[in-house]
Amino acid sequence: MGEKREKTDAILLRIRGTTRIYELYPAVQWPDQDEADEGLYRVRECRYEANRKRGRWLCIGGRKFTFMTLEAIFRHLRHEAAEAGYLDRLTAPAPPLREGMLVRWLPGNMREISTGTEPRCYRARLLSDPILWPDGQWRVVIGTSRSGGLVCCDEIQPIDAHGREVAR
Fold first, then answer.
1. What's the CA angle centered on 5, arms 76 and 88, to 5 degrees?
2. How many C-beta atoms surround the C-beta of residue 68 within 10 A?
C-alpha cells in the first residue's frame, strides 16, 4: 500500500487455524472513484506470514476498487467462515429501471458541492438493467454524450423525451 489511509475498524477472524484481519477504510477516502459513496467501505484482508503482516484489497468482479456496505461485509465474512470466497447476494429488490430508458444522472460526489449554483447533471440512456453490485447497491450501466459507466441507481431519475421526470 503506497499511500497511507486511515482505517476506522478492524475485524479479527480465526478461520480454519488461520487468523485473518479485515481492515475497514471509509470509501470517502477515494474521492476520485465514482462508487466511493458515503457509508461504504473498502476492505483490506491481512494475514501474518513468517511474522510479517501481508495484506490485499478485497476486490470482487475483477475491479480494482470494491466498496461495500457493512451488511455486505458481514455477509461476506459469514460465508468466508463457511465457504472460502463465497459472497452471498443481498435480497434488496431491483429498482424499476430497464435498459434503454432515458435518465437524468446527478453524480453522488456532485451533490456535496455547494457552490451556490445548480450542480451539473447529465442526460443518459441506460445500457443495462439494474445489477446487484457486491457493495449491496443496485447499479446500472449508462451512456452519456461525454462518457459512460456503472452508476448507483440512487443517482438517477427516469425522464421522458422532453426531459421531464417520470415516476419510478
1. 10
2. 25
Q: Does one domain contain both 20 and 66?
A: yes
Residue at which a domain ends, from 51, 82, 113: 82
Same domain for 147 and 118, yes or no, is: yes
Cell of 24: 475497514
Helix%, strand%, coil% for the chain, nearest 5 = 15, 35, 50
Torsions phi, psi for 110 (to 5 deg): -80, -20
CA distance 11 to 77: 10
* pLDDT digit string, tens, across residues 105-134: 887 655 444 455 566 778 889 999 998 877
Q: 90-124 burial string, b = 16+ CB within 10 Å, else e?
A: beeeeeebeeebebbbbbbbeeeeeeeeeeeebeb
In a shared domain, residues 63 and 111: no
Full-model pTM: 0.51
Residue 167: inside a domain, yes or no?
Answer: no
146 touches 121 (CB < 8 A):
no
How many of the other CB atoms lie within 10 Å of CB of 27?
Answer: 22
